[in-house]
Structures are given as structure tokens and as C-alpha cells.
Amino acid sequence: MKKRAFLSVSDKTGIVEFAKDLVDLGYEVISTGGTQRAIGEAGVPVTNVSDITGFPECLDGRVKTLHPAVHAGILFMRDNPSHVKQMEELGIAPIDIVAVNLYPFLETIKKTGVSFEEAIENIDIGGPTMLRAAAKNHKDVAVIVDASDYARVIGCLREEGEVSYEVKRDLCKKVFEHTAAYDALIAQYLRGVTGAGLPDDFTMTYQKVQEMRYGENPHQSAVFYKEPLTPAGSLAMAEQLNGKELSFNNINDTNGALDLLREFREEKKAVVVAVKHANPCGVGIRDTLADAYNTAYEADPVSIFGGIVACNRKVDAETAAAMAKTFLEIIVAPDYEEEALGILRKKKNLRVLKLPAICDPLPAGALDMKKVLGGLLVQDMDRELYPELRVVTRRQPTEKELADLELAWRIVKHTKSNGIAIAKDGQSLGIGPGQVNRVWAVEQSIQRSGDKVKGAALASDAYFPFDDSVRAAAAAGITAIIQPGGSIRDEDSVKACDELGIAMVYTGMRHFKH
């Protein structure tokens, strides 16, 4: 009996050549719609599926392959005597190869202004059904969902006369990965359209960007994936203009820099943030980018070494020259002047990233996910800064102190807990991240601030359980403190501030970052 192959693809890449090769190998090619036209117009013999089913396409093409003559041919188990007998009685011939790819749902929903109706119409029904059927019966059927596998299948047929079981099983795996991702994307789209919360069964899909040289450490393997609907301001959308490929830690740390820079998306002045090991180590706000960079650098010239720098403005030659004086891992900015790029490219290992939408706000529905062994923690992104500021001390903060307090608060929001940030005059000073108790974080940030600490503002990502942190801050010369409030001993800290002449404001909102 002549072997048969069913081909029906949205992406026509390589399909004509594949059909021709199959015909040359003695296969009958069956197809539908646009695929049949493409194959037929190339002069390759092709049979319309309606000639197999005896039933015409209907409902605007919604129904064309959903027929026993197709699905029995795919699901027929060749070593099952009962199946063989039934197929003979029904007069149905087997289908040995299935090559299908699906309606372009992702490409459809990416289009500007796409309607809900258009999106729904681009949900494939027959394609996934055929793929799943063929994959289920992969012992007898070679199923192809990826055009890059055409040559692999033809190679097997030419060299061995058949597709080996090992290859069929691998193709089966690819099908279920593909259809699972397809369905997950549809569910994700519908969650966004309907505004639904997190479901009982949570499924997301991601696309491989690159295999990493290694993970956090050289003995760990790793891959970088991106969301199919990647936000414009995400690191996955950056264009690399220079340097080695990004490592696992580079990506994680640069994402932290982008999160912090996004806090200043409405700032009219130039902003530069420096991050080391996903923690802020320098922030500068000035009239020019070069001054902003130098300010961020001077905030902590030790920690910025080997760090990551993110800018909210186009990098000019003056800024690039300043950056080139120290060892940086990564620079990311919306754009670069040609002269600036020339300066930075002299450092061949320096990773230079261009991200035009670097300060875009977080997209609606963005989620924060943390993997734990055997589970996944999912939450909304931390979009808020504070609902309102409430002064709780007798002394009111000055306008300058309020500006310093807000800067410190934006920084501490992106500092690992227990976190403290000190700021003054558009510059971060000492930052105390990730300490196991708050007073240690205070002491660390004070020590790192040096003489500039006098007259500075201090932010704490959570409340002070005791007044020891307030007293340490006052002894260093800090004049204003911002914190969420909420401790049963809040009054102790307020009394200490009143006693020591410090202004304190509550935000009513904490920003733990674990």
C-alpha cells in the first residue's frame, strides 16, 4: 500500500520542497487550502482532503479535517489485529506522516488594535487535534510541527527507508511542548482580556532566547527564556551592541537595575543607577548624564567596580569617557551617540545594551514569580511607592528633606530586606542590603555614607521594631527618616525622633524584597 503524508501548515517555509521529496520517495501527499495551492502550483502532485473524506470543507474552513477518514488513518495502530480488520472493513487507508503548524495566534494578538473576535478566530482547532492524534500514535506516525525537522525526516527515509522510533518519539515530545505552549498562550490572553485573577491551575509559556554558558555557578546549566508577549522595556528586548553574551547573573542583575531605573520614569533630569549583585549601589540625579553618572559612581566607587549601570538618557561621549575609566560589566541605555559607542567598544568585553523603552511603565497584568522546590510563588508586581506620606513627629521635614526622603524610599524599595538606604542632594549614599536584623543594616549604611551622612535622609523598607535604629541614625547626623510604620512599638521610635530632633514620616506601605 502506498504511504501517505498529510501536510497543512500556516507557515509555508520549506513545505513545497518537503512535499516534492515525499513524492519522490513514493508518498501520496494530502493537503488543504493554502497549503494545497502552494504545493500544486509548484507542480507537485497533491490530493485535497475532501477527496479522502468525501465531505467538503464547510463553515468558512472551520471544519475540513475533523473526519474519521483522517483521524482513523492517523490513530490506526498497525500491530493491532482489531484495528487492521476495522480499517479494512471501513475502507480507510493509513496516514504515515503528519506535518502541521498552527494558526498564527501569537502573531495575531501582537498586532496593534486587534479585536477580540479576530483573536478568537485565529485559535486553531483541527491542527492541534491532528497533531495530538499523530503524537499519541507516534509509534506508527511521524509527526512534524517544526519546519526545521523536514530535512531530518527526509534524511531518515532516504538512508533507512523509515523514520526510526527514537526520532518519532522526539518529534512526539516537540508536538506536546508546542500544543501546550499554544494553549497556555490562549489562556494567558483570555486572562488579560477578562481581567481575571490568578487561576486554580496556573500555566505560562516561554520561548528560548539562548542557552547560557552556565547558571549562577559554572557547575549549573541554564537557559534564558522570554515571554511570547514581551514588554518593550524588558531586558529580553534589548539589542546588544558590544561585548560577550550575557550570563545568568548578568541577566538577573540587569533586571534589578531596570526595575530601579523604572522608579524614575517621570524624572525630568538625567538619572543613572548602578547595581551590584541585584542590589543598588549608586544612584545619581543631575542635569546632565555625565554628572549623573559621576554622582552615582561617587556614591560607592568600590561597589560599582564590576557592576551594572542603567541610564534614562542617550549616552554621550562625555558620559562614555567617564564610564570607560572603571571596569563595568554592563551598560544599558535608550541609545548611544556614535562617538560614545566608539569609546565603549574599545573595551571588547563590556556588554553594551540598547533598550529604547527602558523607562516604560510595567505592563498591565505583569507578574512576579519565584520558583521554590516543588512549587511556584506568584504575585502582582510591586507597582506602588506609597499611598500618602504622614508626618508623625513634632518636627516637619523641610522641602529638601522631603526630596531626599523620596529618593531614599525609591532606592530602598529595590534593596534586599532587611534594607536601609540613605540619600541626600540627588545622590544615594550608604545602602545596607540583606541584613538579618535592621540595626545592622542601619549601621552598615551609615558607615558606607562617610561624612556626607550628616543632614541626609534614611529609608527603611519595613518598620523599626525598636528605637535603636533611630538613635544610631541620630548619632550619625541623619535628620529625616521614612518608614512604613506598623510596629506595636512605633511610639518608641517617634519619641526618640522627637527627643533627637529628627523628622519622621510614615508611608503606610512596606516594600519587602526577598
Give the topology:
Layout (H helix, E strand, L loop, with lengths): L3 E6 L5 H10 L3 E4 L1 H9 L5 E2 H5 L14 H8 L5 H10 L6 E5 L3 H6 L5 H6 L4 H11 L5 E3 L5 H11 L4 H30 L12 E5 L11 E4 L12 E4 L5 H15 L7 E7 L2 E8 L2 H11 L7 E5 L5 H7 L4 E6 L4 H7 L6 E4 L12 E6 L2 E6 L9 E2 L7 H14 L7 E5 L2 E6 L5 H12 L7 E4 L7 H9 L3 E4 L6 H11 L2 E4 L8
Parallel strand pairs: 1-2, 1-4, 2-3, 4-5, 11-12, 12-13, 19-20, 20-21
Antiparallel strand pairs: 6-7, 8-13, 9-10, 9-11, 14-15, 16-21, 17-18, 17-19
Helix pairs in contact: 8-10, 12-13, 13-14, 16-17, 17-18
Give an overview in words:
The chain is an alpha/beta fold and 514 residues long. It contains 18 helices and 21 strands. Strands 8-13-12-11-9-10 form a 6-stranded mixed β-sheet. α1 links the parallel β1 and β2. The longest helix has 30 residues. The chain starts with a strand and ends in an 8-residue tail after the last strand. The model has no long low-confidence stretch (mean pLDDT 92).
